Amino acid sequence: QVQLVESGGGLVQAGGSLRLSCARSGRTLDDYAMGWFRQAPGKEREFVATISRNDYNTYYADTVKGRFTITSDNAKLTYYLQMNSPKPKDTAVYYCAAATAPIEVVLITASEYTYWGQGTQVTVSS
């Protein structure tokens, strides 16, 4: 079993920056593809960013490309989502997720992920 715990959410002004963290525990010797998703009130959960098991490949939603960056610190088993120049429309609960996958594959569909964190609220003020 893999446990994921997000942190770093909060209130940020548009144009500022915020870094979300996702700490992974459980089967620590296994590698997983990791992703970030978000869900705004009244909307479906949507893909934000993903990174492959070997960290070589990343992929972003068009809505955040060029502003958000996904990275990992494998020594700490922690993944990050750096949010630069956030906009009010980025306001949502952000979730990290983990999935078994081939080493270079990135996954963009929520149903492909097995493990989920509890979410962290991000609110961007104008």
> What letter string, H or E per element, gives the SSE order?
EEEEEEEEEEE
Tally of DSSP β-strands = 11
Radius of gyration: 13 Å
Distance between the termini: 40 Å
Q: Quickly count the helices.
A: 0
Low-confidence stretches: none
Taking the sheet with the most strands, its summary is: 7 strands, mixed
Helix content, binned percent: under 10%
Mean pLDDT: 94
Name the shape in a single word: globular
Query: Helix- and strand-based class?
Result: mainly beta
The proportion of residues in beta strands is over 45%
What does this structure look like?
The protein is an all-beta fold and 126 residues long. Helices cover 0% and strands 50% of the residues. Strand 4 and strand 5 form a beta hairpin.
